[in-house]
Amino acid sequence: MTSFRIFLALMLLLLVGCAQNYTASAIQNPNLNTQKSKLTTQSDATYQTRLGWSYYKVQNYSEAAKWFRLASIQRDPDAQQALGYMYQIGQGVAQDYSEAAKWYRLSADQGDYEAQFNLGTLYDDGKGVTKDWKEAIRLYQLAAARGDELAQYKLGYKYYEGAGVIQDYSEAVRWWLLSANQGYARSQYLLGICYLNGEGVPQSHTEAVKWLKLAANQGNVEAQDLLKKITKVNNKRKKSLYQYYDPLNIRG
């Protein structure tokens, strides 16, 4: 019995010692519990975002929005971007451009390039925010630098039109080329027109047809129609092949 009491006393001392060591550790590192809490929160946000996408894929948009919102409150940039998009088009929530801009901005500030592009379109069109081409271009540039082909396409338009920037056909071609090389059909079509017109690049029938065919093969109707016109011109030989084509008949 005495031996058992001695054993209990030793175990008690050991437990007290462990508790003191943990308390001392917590005092020396007050962020320990916060860090654990953050890890748990981040894990929850990731799970909530995945759940949101699962509901989105089966077109249960209201449930998707609910989970994206929970993750967005915890600063998950993917969820914030998704929630912003749902507000922008009125999917699962009432359409609200201001709310879309709010969530896009939170995500864009964390470096999400899709949110940067989408927020740029809102500034471009003046939806939910005051129209501001310079801010739109700044956001497009951030997204384009990350390789977003839509942002590169939009920048090409801005430089071609001289909207918010000094008009520069060479710069327009540079951005359209980056986008076209990623397979974006609209940029391929516009690049083909630039080669036809000799704008920002040396005039070249070969290059023009190459890019127009790439766009046409992806179903771009404008490229298909223009190729037919070029073929007629070549066959009849009545008009100059290099008549001017306006790439801005349909705006970006």
Can you describe this structure?
The protein is mostly helical. It folds into two domains: 43-146, Alpha Horseshoe (Serine Threonine Protein Phosphatase 5, Tetratricopeptide repeat), CATH 1.25.40; 147-252, Tetratricopeptide repeat domain (Serine Threonine Protein Phosphatase 5, Tetratricopeptide repeat, Alpha Horseshoe). It has helices at residues 2-28, 32-57, 61-73, 77-89, 97-108, 113-125, 133-145, 149-161, 169-180, 185-197, 205-216, 221-236. The longest helix is centred in the N-terminal third of the chain and has 27 residues, at 2-28. The chain is elongated. 39% of the residues are buried.
Task: Summarize the SSE layout with pairings.
Blueprint: H1 2-28, H2 32-57, H3 61-73, H4 77-89, H5 97-108, H6 113-125, H7 133-145, H8 149-161, H9 169-180, H10 185-197, H11 205-216, H12 221-236
Helix pairs in contact: 2-3, 3-4, 4-5, 5-6, 6-7, 7-8, 8-9, 9-10, 10-11, 11-12
Q: What are the main properties of this structure?
A:
single chain; 252 residues; mainly alpha; Serine Threonine Protein Phosphatase 5, Tetratricopeptide repeat; 2 domains; 12 helices; 0% strand; elongated
Amount of helix: over 70%
Give Rg in angstroms: 29 Å
Largest sheet, described in full?
none
CATH topology of the largest domain: Serine Threonine Protein Phosphatase 5, Tetratricopeptide repeat
Mean pLDDT: 84
Tell me the CATH superfamily of the largest domain. Tetratricopeptide repeat domain
Number of E-state strands: 0
What is the oligomeric state here?
A: single chain
Instruction: Provide the succession of SSEs.
Output: HHHHHHHHHHHH
Terminal CA distance reads: 89 Å
Approximate strand percentage:
under 5%
The name of the CATH architecture of the largest domain is Alpha Horseshoe
Number of helices: 12
Name of the top-level CATH class of the largest domain = Mainly Alpha
Low-confidence residue ranges: 4-41, 238-242
Structural class: mainly alpha
CA-based shape? elongated
| Total discrete domains | 2
